[in-house]
Amino acid sequence: MTADAQVPDDEFVEPETTADDAVAETADDAAPDDAAPESDTPELVAETDDIDEEDQLIEEGEIAGDYLEQLLDVLDFDGDIDLDVDGDRAVVSIDGGRDLAKLVGRRGEVLDALQELTRLAVQQATGDRSRLMLDIARWRADRRERLAGLGTEVAERVRETGEREALDPMTPFERKIVHDAVAAVDGVVSESEGAEPKRRVVVIKTS
């Protein structure tokens, strides 16, 4: 997940040049190239913006890492915290502890709740809403692989049989993985139906 009125370019009328204007233009033409410094090029500005955004995501990850480290200490859980940036979001992963499954819960429900708490902690520190992704014991990574495989399998089956298939209800994160997998298969499309929390992906043959 917008002014003063302007004259459209195709309606602009060039004013007549007077004698005084001609003298001024001649003087301007004669001015040395370094008379006025050039502004930053769009490419440089865009690159600077990208660097600033990446720095912000790195900061989000560090704040989240500190918050989660304190949580692990309070719970007396072991775990290695890894920080990364994936596209437009910070990614924090916790792995290596024998008790971490308790922080995942049934179908990742505890993990989802903990992710929201971590995002709130980041938002409180930075003042900006966070889209940080938290993974524990590779639950999301493994889930991503399984859902991608499921999406491909269902898409190929629908293409062969011509019959639409509806999958089990999923979270927005899970549905996007399936949509991406289906999009890679020719002859089928996917769409979401229903309302949360029972919204699901439906795969349909197109030709």
Automatic annotation (TrEMBL):
Q: What is this protein called?
A: R3H domain-containing protein
Q: Which PROSITE patterns match?
A: R3H (PS51061)
Pfam families, per the entry: R3H (PF01424)
**What InterPro entries does this protein map onto?**
Jag_KH (IPR038008), KH_dom-like_a/b (IPR015946), KhpB (IPR039247), R3H_dom (IPR001374), R3H_dom_sf (IPR036867), R3H_KhpB (IPR034079)
| Gene Ontology MF, one | RNA binding
Cited PANTHER family = PROTEIN JAG, RNA-BINDING PROTEIN KHPB
Under the heading SUPFAM superfamilies, the entry gives: R3H domain
The segment(s) forming the R3H domain are 141-207
Record region (Disordered): 1-45
Composition-biased stretches (Acidic residues): 7-45
